[in-house]
Amino acid sequence: MDNSENPGSRSLDLDPGKTTQNYGSAGENDPAPLHWSQHTEQARGYGPLKFLLILFRCLPVIILRIIAFPVGFFYFLFSRSARAESGRFLRRIAPLVKDPKLAKKCLSFFGPLSHIISFSLALVEKIQSWGGKYHVKNVRLQDDDLEELKVGLERGQGAFLIFSHLGNSELLRGLLNLDQTGLSRKIPVTAIIDMKVNAHFSRMLKELNPQSSMDIIGADEVGAHTVTLLEEKIASGGLVLVTGDRTPLSGKTLMIPFLGEEAPFPYGVFYLATLMNAPVYFVFSLRRKHLSLKQEYLMHVHKSHLSFDCTRKERLRRCSLLAESFVELLALYCREQPFQWYNFFDFWQEGSGRTL
């Protein structure tokens, strides 16, 4: 939901991308791809999301999770683009999945159906996390760098967190916003997102939780003045959150090997991270099973051990290394949970894009 060079007067292009090559051709009958940011939400207007919000307030969560299955089936039947892009991705990743049963599901005719229903469940869970109906006890923490992040936050040290559209990027944001972290202080959070593409969803989250203390900055607004603002927020013990897997419509991108082919990633996100003089963490929140009525998530937190206290030339080199580290982890978790990849557009295709 969110997101190049030198922080001068022009934008840092923290918004999704431009590629230089074509990767992964569409099927003969697949719709022509566009850049992801050229499409607003699949559900036109705010009405459908408003209806979902009413259901959330009136029905038990388990009912909403059950409803997510027929809703996903509806999109499977009537969203040709979602079927095409899901199938394209699942065919690509199937040979890379280590679990034979999971790989077989990726190649099944019903693979895209499972994929789209998984996305429907994730939407319900996003609303849960923002609406205070998702408890931190349902999140299984891993033996990784989360403890170091928590210790730093307790000491008043801020951090820069990079998420993705694999799994539920809203889960930690919602828990932070509702102060469900187990920390002794409330953590100020600033999120950089693409307001143009996600305007309706952002509006729904604000209506869901009008007391939200999260600051939101539009990805296309990031420039030199914003860099200073973000530095101040981190210096005061806050978190800055951004996604690292969608490129800007125009602007500099990094071509990095990802699942067997080079793919474009947003230069601006990773260069911004190098300017913050703060710890950088990669966060992945993945449902334990891609189709389940249970709400169990596994949260993985990885700290980058790169230092950015260096010359500008060296910082540019380390910016690329930072991005490569993120992409390596993204590929690892994609192979584990391919049905939780929620970029419904041809990630490797120049100028491609479509979101549910």
Query: Per the principal axes of the C-alpha atoms, what is the gross shape?
Result: globular
Alpha carbon gyration radius: 19 Å
What are the segments in which pLDDT stays under 50 over at least 5 consecutive residues? Answer: 1-11, 14-28, 351-356
SS summary, helix count: 11
Provide the structure class.
alpha/beta
Strand content: 5-15%
Mean of all residue-level pLDDT scores: 81
Helicity level: 40-55%
Q: What is the number of beta strands? A: 9
SSE pattern: HHHHHEHEHEHEHEEEHEEH
Domain module count: 1
What strand order characterises the main sheet? 1-9-8-2-5-3-4
| Distance, first to last CA | 11 Å
**For the report, how would you describe the main beta sheet?**
7 strands, mixed
Description:
The protein has 356 residues and is an alpha/beta fold. It has one domain (36-340). The protein has helices at residues 47-58, 61-78, 80-93, 100-107, 111-131, 146-154, 170-177, 199-208, 224-235, 267-275, 312-336, and strands spanning 139-141, 159-163, 189-193, 215-218, 239-243, 253-258, 261-266, 280-287, 297-303. The protein has a 7-stranded mixed sheet with strand order 1-9-8-2-5-3-4, with helices on both faces. Strand 3 (189-193), helix 8 (199-208) and strand 4 (215-218) form a beta-alpha-beta unit. The longest helix is centred in the last third of the chain and has 25 residues, at 312-336. The relative contact order is 0.23.
